[in-house]
Design brief:
About 20% of the residues lie in helices and about 15% in strands. The chain is α/β, with parallel strands linked by helices and about 150 residues long.
Length: about 150
């Protein structure tokens, strides 16, 4: 092995197109940018989504759907999460403050009780909403629900 016979391993290097290094490289002259036009000039930069004056795709594709500006977004909390809270912390009254303390809701959330899971204890609720099936399950255990605004 001699210094003049050293070569990189097979497949370890890529053939790089050396642009603007004279006519002998095959990529001299216009440096593969073509003749004239904005793209051939130095400092050229196009806007994101610009399609050469053609109507851009984000403007060609129609908008769809309906967004209700009066929608009220509730944070849903299921009965199984409430039951776990009752089992672990021995809580009998569920209010927004209790849910915030235990990480089930944020201070500004509107809370709605949903009916996934099973409630096995008598619990009093003071929340912003409740599904009918959850209300039936709570009242079947002797609990009460007070809807707050």
């Amino acid at each position: 092995m001699n210094l003049h016979s050293l070569k990189p391993a097979e497949g370890s290097t890529k053939k790089v197109k050396r642009i603007g290094r004279g006519e002998g490289s095959g990529h001299g002259g216009t440096a593969t940018k073509g003749h004239k036009g904005a793209k051939s000039r130095s400092g050229y930069k196009s806007k994101i989504g610009f399609e050469g004056g053609q109507m851009p795709i984000q403007r060609r594709v129609p908008k769809f759907g309906f967004k209700n500006i009066n929608r009220v977004e509730y944070k849903g909390i299921n009965l199984d999460a409430i039951q776990a809270l009752v089992d672990n912390k021995k809580i009998t009254e569920i209010t927004l403050d209790v849910l915030v303390e235990n990480g089930l809701a944020n201070k500004k959330d509107l809370v709605k009780i949903l009916n996934r899971g099973e409630l096995k204890s008598k619990v009093t609720f003071k929340v912003h909403g409740c599904s009918k099936t959850a209300q039936a399950a709570i009242e079947a255990q002797g609990g009460t629900i007070e809807i707050i605004k």
